[in-house]
């Protein structure tokens, strides 16, 4: 860098003689007068617009197109009615302006894309069909109780067991237990006719409840991190820290061991095995697969179909000859249990597909692979496909002798209602309230079908008629002989003379 010092002549008193005349005049010229503009004291935008001469009507008068736009807009119409500044009319107009004002252009206004987003959120909330979550309600109750107290521990343990789901599992097992084809229900074994034991039902109910609670607790233990991302599950006890991971694990293990033991000693080993299998499938297969593949829905449907099979096997074990798993599960007389399991398996799909659709974005954000967002079109097809299966299943229950043939007719209206809502859900892919319609149709469908099956149980109304008319009940030997006669008469290989001889026998 080269530093140049000023010449000595410039620092002397007569140094101005070296400055040219034009530069000297520029330095001595007075600074221009600045024009100050005061801020408008008007309390509205109209006065501010009126004080701006650029918005006068004459400014855009040469362009007819702009003139039309100006006259149709609010600001342009306002500018066209403002008189020129400096006139008496202008002063009068400004003095007559009201004290209220329009919103300032800089104020916060709802933009169009914000309005569209709000409309989509409102539509999604309108399709939100989920009832209040019982686990979340119990967690809220527990959080208000004192720490380390029973008032907190009991609601937390109930929340871990998902009481609504556990009750559904127990009810399906009990309904299947009552549908087993015996003449009497829940009577002591000392009666004259075969019956179901209330003690066996007690062990079945207790063991199934504990197994369901164990499976649900293991499910919560596996995914508290992702439960915190969803509105339905973010209030669970492990997410809120109402119970430690160690405490929840101890509860899950004790409930599982107690449930399997109750089923083993109080019912039979086959039912105990099914209860343990349900825990393994739900906690060990269904829960991890939720983040891997959409196949998890089918695994969850199998878990839902096992409790009816448990109830049927519990009833079959009381009259079995050997009581092994082949006789209780693979015997020809146990087809009804598999049909009831198929009914619960098929019911899971229209119910869950409609339930998951309103919260599909939450499933997506949490990383759960569900058809509701992976493939919405297939989501509707699956719900419709399995809704159609209820017709052959109900007819199959009549054909195998579990129910009367009137059950096929009585269950047809509720099956048609479910299929109608499933068709609408499939066509609209969940929009326009179709998911809400299918969800509530599935909620009412299952209890109606199960109650109708128990009311239309094979031979129930005949026994009611005998009791009403005072006719004697058949004892156990007559019941067995009557079944043998029906089996002989229904055989296709019976000779005509034997069939005629059997028909000619006097009634007992």
Describe the protein's architecture and organization:
With 508 residues, this protein is mainly α. It has three domains: 44-86, no CATH class; 134-330, Orthogonal Bundle (Tetracycline Repressor, domain 2), CATH 1.10.357.140; 354-472, no CATH class. 65% of the residues lie in helices and 0% in strands. The protein contains 28 helices and no strands. Helix 10 packs across helix 16 (296-316). It is globular. Mean pLDDT is 77; it is low at 9-16, 53-61, 76-91 and 93-108.
Protein topology:
Blueprint: H1 8-11, H2 21-28, H3 45-50, H4 64-72, H5 74-80, H6 88-95, H7 112-126, H8 134-143, H9 150-160, H10 163-178, H11 198-222, H12 224-227, H13 237-240, H14 245-266, H15 269-289, H16 296-316, H17 325-330, H18 335-356, H19 360-366, H20 371-374, H21 376-387, H22 390-399, H23 406-410, H24 412-428, H25 434-455, H26 460-469, H27 476-490, H28 496-503
Q: What is the CATH class of the largest domain?
A: Mainly Alpha
Distinct helical segment count = 28
Q: How many separate structural domains?
A: 3
- At the fourth level of CATH, the homologous superfamily of the largest domain is UbiA prenyltransferase
SSE topology string: HHHHHHHHHHHHHHHHHHHHHHHHHHHH
Low-confidence segments? 9-16, 53-61, 76-91, 93-108
Per DSSP E runs of 2 or more residues, the count of β-strands stands at 0
Which shape, going by the Cα principal axes?
globular
Largest sheet: none
Q: Helix content range of the residues, please?
A: 55-70%
**What's the gyration radius in Å?**
41 Å
- Portion in beta strands: under 5%
N/C terminus separation: 132 Å
CATH topology assignment of the largest domain: Tetracycline Repressor, domain 2
Mean residue pLDDT: 77
CATH architectural label of the largest domain: Orthogonal Bundle
Q: What structural class do you assign from the helix and strand content? A: mainly alpha
